[in-house]
Amino acid sequence: PSLFARTGWTIGVLFTLYSAVLTYFTGVILGEICTLHPRLHSYPLIAEEAFARLGTGGDPTVPRRELQGLIGKRFVQAIQFACFFLTGIAELIFFQQYLAQLFSKYDVCQRGWLLIAAGFALPFMMVPTFRESRWPAVVALVLLCGNQVVFFYEVFHVAPWNSCDVPPAWSHVTPLTVIHGVTGIGYAFGGHGLFPEQIREMAHPERWTTVMRWIYAIVTPLYLAMGLLGYYAYGRNAQANLNANYPNNIPNQASIIFQSFQEVYYILASGLVLVLQVELALGVSPYAVCSYDVRQKSANGLGEGEVELAETDHPERGLTSEGYSSGSNDSISAECSSESSSREGSGGGLADWISLRACGVPPVGFRLIFRTIFLGSQTFIASLMLGGNGDVLLAVQSLAGAVGYMMMTYVLPLLFGWVLLPRVSTWRCALYAVSFVVCTLLAIAGVIFDTQELVEASGGFGQGVSCEVKEDLSYEDGCIAALGRAALANASAVMAGAAGAVAAI
Predict the structure, then answer these.
(1) Which of 105, 227, 336, 481 could be bridged to 290 by S-S, CB 3.0 to 4.6 A?
(2) DSSP E strand boundaries for 163-228
(3) CA distance 76 to 79
(4) pTM above 0.85, yes or no
């Protein structure tokens, strides 16, 4: 709803439908690439291969342009890191707002809640890979269904368009607000940047297209229903944190509890794709406890310095359970070896020092230190982004959408498919070409204007950061929560003035 408040009715609906169609195709493209080229099991590897083949005309006899491929890989890694790093920051801010709403009676400032939120998330950041995160994902999905029920209940329970003194007011849409809104919608449809990593860990990756069909059959109607109904109910006061539009009642409290648990998974998922890249590049197994006795993927024809993730054999994908000793279901040796720094998979001298294996730190110790520092850096930057009213969520989400999700979801898969897959039909080719140009321009404009908005909204170290997250996060009155105190105050002033005029007559 808050994004529709920026785009208006028409643009919001049209861009949501357009995004659903285009991002469905781009998700299928990534799945087809991973199936046709099994060794391209991560987004940066797909980018490297696509950029290396770009300009060769699809002729396999033409040598790959290695430097061009490396530049493309580094470029994608940079935007992937920025995108998911910002996503984790947004989820941390969401989490601290939920905690502040849930425990509003406690005298804790928003930066205090942010530290508490990070403390709750830290143990879950130690989940090794996406494979183990499937159980938290199932719990988050169940809770998400509960939140949708609460949304529809709260909207129709208050019915601001009928029960309040004034009806909801629509936003004044400008080109700038539209840019913020559409990049925010890009955030909502994002996630493609970790699709290859998830496909890599699927038991049956060939079923990815079926997964995409189910996802979009559920998500698209839900996005439209919530966007349209929420904007109709709350108008320009629609908040990024929807619970701030609900009255402080039992269903809202239950929804906040649900979403607090969900946030733990969202923080994990956005961070896991980044920490795994670093750990695998350093030869640190996500499963090993004390031993560095891991084999390199290069022996299986995969990326240098990366460690196998699969627990089961997938020889057709170049993946085997022999990728590293702790990847199977066998018990992991608890005895640390003093020779671990000289074993296979050590990753070289510099990697030895960066991964702390040269100092005798076991893999589990490095993961604990590295992932704690990673989450701590997100928490620190989130604390700088907290504005005077704590509501910079839209700015962070829109920037993440512009920096990464627009490129990794709307643009780059089209390029990858054009280079690495057989040609598609004429109408799809035309759609892809137009979309490539339009979405690239939207991403560039979004980065510029969303960064400006975020800088203006952020409090930094200044005195502009208030203690409370927001004044009206927990109103008992449904109309005040839905439409805002200012709107109702203005309506009361108008009514009082009209009554005074009538009395004078």
Answers:
(1) 336
(2) none
(3) 5
(4) no
